[in-house]
């Protein structure tokens, strides 16, 4: 086997001992740089790409700023080796690709310390328990047969005694070796890997490795330290006790469940993360729960007592903050106590709803108990029922034909039903439309899974999927409460009814945001999930009463922008000294049919940081390209990469022939940090940094010959649209703007970052597109006041209001945006 000890120049690298020495002196190198150096040396002379480095050092599903981590590791390797990056002797950078180890290597014979004279190759050992078997020294070979002489006999006896003593010493040495080998493995391999697994959000694997390490060295201080810092105490109980507890990572839906023990489990410590936990006990229904809570208590339901395809939800106090912050909610009408209840595990399917249709449900008055109110008119059953027809004028959902759903869609959620049809179906099956309080308790409870559930739910933009086919599970075992189809709730808001959870065609944050639609509306996105209450009596009126949109903390009709002199002071906060960009193209991907994607980076205007960005260049147009700088919606503060479907909804700009610049703004995607609270200095500072990122992105675009610097646009959705007034007032090289589903800020901000103080200084052509029934940016108190104070001449600004909620219709949005860009930038060539 090749040696694990190699030499290059005056440096020795020992893979077995995990050490680096120069002239016998140890060189300090941390774990990640050391593993990277071992990888480069093992692949000497070959290009090792950044992707290969990421997968080798961190794995495929890493949630780190790996680019920065690689750069840091390479810098530390060069510092240790005294390697000049401009004239490298050891590590060569291949721009935009990766790295190559270029120094000659000789294999060292560890027994002599001499080089073997040939190129060395060795394999970096995986992080596993070392071989603890003691090595028998070579001079302990089997003795030859004794002679017949007395002297030979005495020598044999002495030899036997010596061998026995030596055997004892070897055994003791083996025990000592095993002891210290275990300590070494725990401290040098297990603990770092546990930490990395936690960072990579693989908490179950981290727990299993921690448990193994603790068995080997239970009193190790490094284990105790990581236990206190990383592993949180948990308490899992059931009524009755004695249930088997199993769990898996929330973000690893295909992984196996691991057994923890029987309830009650007190003080068990797990990494702080989200898990899916199962409770199994003979004679009782299995309970599945998604949770990150420290305490989980479950009431088990005896077998056969749980309604089919339903789950039990624990009651409690539910506080609503619909449409904005609510002050003093406890004790108010928006804070209500609810009892335990059942709710459908899945959305109602086409197969289930067809039973209602086939049973004559549309003709039977006993199921239609709610008064039919359309504006100021009350309709009779005969009048109303004529509105509930399918595409072929038969009774049924608007998405059906000839009284039935499309072939092969039996298990798809029923869509295209009005609130009245949902309520009638609930009567047919002996259930109820959930109140808003019950829906939010089942979907969120007091253990919100907001960010994680979005990764595993249907916000694909491609329409509904069979129920349960996405792995996004709620805190009580429900599926598809996030996305797929929206779900009607009982409560009214004015002349509308709440419909929650968002649909596959919505932006993902609509899972949390409230929406209310006309009760007669029958869009394909409108579906059903039902509840069943344990009490026979009617719910208290406080739970079923209408819930108005709760007003924002700011009514922008009453806000007056600051003076021009004050604005100029604020504007100065967004300026920066001219400095080199040090721009790099880090990678290219030409596999998409409509564009070439480049990942670039350049120096930020603050804190010695780098700004990553993605530049999408169209294949159906010729340079120099018109370019749209994009600022994304709030999901950028949740998802860790634009690869998670974050370019969908913007790709139409590239398909239409314009380049799209997608900066990774401070606080978004791989640059995420703690989201600062509204109205704080921290929020002000990060907003200013985001504006500087935008301006530096434009600086970069101006350096490229394939970009038309005189035809740059700004396109933003929701969060980016709310910040649009700020961005456009401080960056005068942008020629036209499109703001979608956003206007003013949702909270009261410091004046230096209040969009209303910047809007009068926006003078470029600006198109705003919003929903008339947007709870996040209300039409009268937010959209219209901001549009009114925009400094753009009236002929060059337009506000399109759709009959929708926060998300505007896709096709109309694309048409209007492209028409606006064509009008002010000119057609694409």
Topology overview:
Layout: E1 5-8, E2 11-14, E3 19-22, E4 25-26, H1 31-42, E5 48-49, H2 50-57, H3 66-81, E6 91-94, E7 98-101, E8 106-109, E9 114-115, H4 150-199, H5 203-216, H6 221-230, E10 231-239, E11 244-249, E12 258-262, E13 265-271, E14 275-280, E15 287-291, E16 295-299, E17 310-313, E18 316-319, E19 335-338, E20 341-344, H7 350-358, E21 372-374, E22 377-379, H8 381-385, H9 419-429, H10 436-443, H11 450-455, E23 486-493, E24 496-500, E25 516-517, E26 526-527, E27 531-533, H12 541-544, H13 564-572, E28 584-589, E29 595-603, E30 610-618, E31 625-631, H14 651-655, E32 659-663, H15 681-701, E33 707-717, H16 719-722, H17 724-730, E34 736-740, H18 755-758, E35 766-771, H19 779-789, E36 797-802, H20 810-825
Parallel strand pairs: 10-16, 23-26, 31-32, 31-33, 33-34, 34-35, 35-36
Antiparallel strand pairs: 1-2, 1-8, 2-3, 3-4, 5-7, 6-7, 8-9, 10-13, 11-12, 11-14, 14-15, 17-20, 18-19, 20-27, 21-22, 23-24, 24-25, 28-29, 29-30, 30-32
Helix pairs in contact: 1-3, 4-5, 4-6
Task: Name its key features.
829 residues; alpha+beta; 9-stranded mixed beta sheet; 6-stranded antiparallel beta sheet; globular
What does this structure look like?
There is one protein chain. β28 (584-589) and β29 form a beta hairpin. This protein has 20 helices and 36 strands. The two termini are 62 Å apart. The chain has 829 residues and is α+β, with helices and mostly antiparallel strands.
Strand content: 15-25%
Shape: globular
The residue ranges in which pLDDT falls below 50 over 5 or more consecutive positions are 112-150, 322-332
Distance between the termini: 62 Å
Specify the biggest β-sheet. Answer: 9 strands, mixed
Quaternary organisation of the protein chains: single chain
């Amino acid at each position: 086997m090749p040696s694990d000890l190699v030499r290059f120049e005056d440096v020795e690298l020992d893979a077995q001992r995990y050490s680096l020495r120069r002239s016998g002196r140890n060189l300090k190198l941390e774990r990640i740089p050391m593993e990277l150096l071992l990888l480069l040396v093992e692949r000497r002379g070959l290009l090792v790409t950044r992707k290969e480095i990421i997968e080798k050092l961190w794995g495929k599903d890493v949630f780190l700023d790996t680019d920065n981590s690689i750069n840091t590791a390479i810098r530390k390797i060069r510092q240790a080796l005294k390697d000049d990056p401009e004239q490298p002797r050891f590590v060569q950078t291949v721009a935009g690709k990766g790295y190559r180890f270029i120094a000659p290597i000789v294999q060292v014979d560890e027994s002599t310390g001499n080089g073997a004279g040939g190129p060395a190759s060795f394999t970096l050992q995986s992080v596993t328990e070392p071989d603890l078997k003691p090595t028998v020294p070579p001079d302990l070979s089997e003795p030859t047969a004794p002679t017949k002489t007395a002297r030979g006999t005495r020598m044999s006896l002495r030899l036997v005694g010596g061998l026995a003593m030596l055997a004892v010493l070897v055994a003791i040495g083996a025990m000592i070796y095993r002891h210290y080998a275990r300590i070494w493995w725990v401290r040098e391999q297990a603990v770092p890997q546990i930490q990395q697994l936690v960072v990579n959000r693989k908490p179950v694997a981290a727990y299993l490795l921690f448990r193994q390490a603790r068995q080997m060295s239970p009193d190790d201080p490094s284990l105790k330290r990581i236990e206190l810092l990383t592993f949180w105490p948990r308490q899992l109980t059931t009524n009755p006790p004695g249930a088997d507890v199993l769990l898996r990572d929330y973000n690893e839906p295909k992984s196996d469940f691991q057994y923890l023990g029987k309830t009650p489990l007190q003080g068990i410590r797990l990494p702080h993360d989200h898990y899916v936990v199962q409770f199994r006990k003979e004679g009782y229904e299995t309970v599945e729960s998604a949770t990150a809570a420290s305490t989980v208590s479950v009431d088990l339901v005896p077998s056969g007592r749980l309604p089919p395809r339903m789950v039990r939800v624990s009651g409690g106090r539910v506080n609503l903050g619909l449409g904005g912050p609510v002050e003093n909610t406890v004790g108010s009408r928006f804070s209500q106590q609810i009892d335990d209840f059942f709710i459908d595990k899945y959305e109602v399917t086409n197969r289930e709803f067809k039973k209602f249709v086939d049973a004559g449900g549309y003709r039977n008055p006993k199921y239609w108990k709610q008064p039919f109110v359309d504006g100021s008119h009350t309709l009779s059953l005969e009048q109303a029922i004529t509105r509930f027809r399918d595409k072929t004028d038969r009774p049924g959902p608007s998405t059906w034909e000839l009284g039935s759903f499309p072939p092969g869609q039996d298990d798809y959620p029923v869509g295209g039903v009005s609130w009245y049809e949902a309520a009638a179906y609930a009567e047919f099956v002996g259930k109820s439309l959930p109140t808003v309080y019950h829906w939010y308790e089942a979907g969120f409870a007091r253990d919100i899974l907001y960010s994680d559930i979005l990764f595993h739910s249907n916000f694909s933009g491609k329409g509904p999927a069979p129920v349960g086919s996405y792995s996004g599970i709620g805190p009580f075992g429900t599926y598809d409460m996030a996305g797929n189809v929206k779900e009607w709730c009982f409560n009214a808001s004015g002349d509308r009814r709440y419909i929650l959870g968002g649909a596959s065609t919505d932006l993902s944050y609509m899972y949390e945001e409230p929406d209310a639609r006309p009760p007669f509306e029958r869009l394909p996105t409108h579906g059903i999930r039902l509840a069943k209450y344990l009490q026979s009596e009617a719910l208290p009126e406080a739970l079923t009463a209408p819930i108005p949109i709760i007003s924002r903390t700011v009514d922008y009709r009453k806000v007056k922008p600051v003076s021009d002199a004050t604005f100029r002071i604020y504007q100065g906060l967004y300026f920066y000294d001219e400095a080199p960009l040090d721009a790099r193209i880090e990678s290219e991907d030409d596999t998409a049919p409509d564009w070439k994607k480049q990942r670039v980076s350049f120096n930020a205007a603050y804190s010695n940081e780098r700004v990553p960005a993605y530049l999408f260049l169209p294949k159906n147009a010729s340079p120099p390209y018109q370019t749209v700088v994009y600022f994304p919606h709030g999901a950028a503060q949740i998802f860790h990469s634009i690869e998670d479907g974050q370019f969908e909804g913007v790709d139409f700009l590239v398909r239409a022939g314009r380049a799209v610049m997608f900066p990774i703004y401070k606080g978004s995607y791989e640059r995420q940090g703690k989201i600062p609270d509204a109205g704080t200095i921290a929020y002000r500072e990060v907003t200013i940094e985001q504006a500087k990122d935008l301006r530096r992105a434009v600086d970069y675009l101006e350096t490229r010959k394939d970009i038309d610097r005189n035809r740059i646009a700004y396109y933003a959705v929701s969060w980016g649209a709310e910040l649009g007034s700020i961005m456009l007032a401080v960056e005068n090289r942008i020629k036209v703007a499109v703001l979608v589903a956003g206007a003013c800020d949702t909270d009261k901000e410091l004046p230096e970052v209040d969009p209303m103080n910047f809007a009068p200084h926006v003078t470029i052509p600006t198109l705003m597109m919003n929903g008339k029934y947007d709870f996040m940016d209300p039409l009268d108190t937010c959209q219209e006041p901001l549009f009114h104070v925009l400094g753009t001449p009236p002929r060059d600004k337009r506000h399109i209001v759709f009959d929708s909620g926060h998300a505007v219709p896709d096709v109309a949005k694309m048409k209007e945006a492209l028409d606006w860009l064509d009008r002010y930038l000119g057609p694409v060539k």
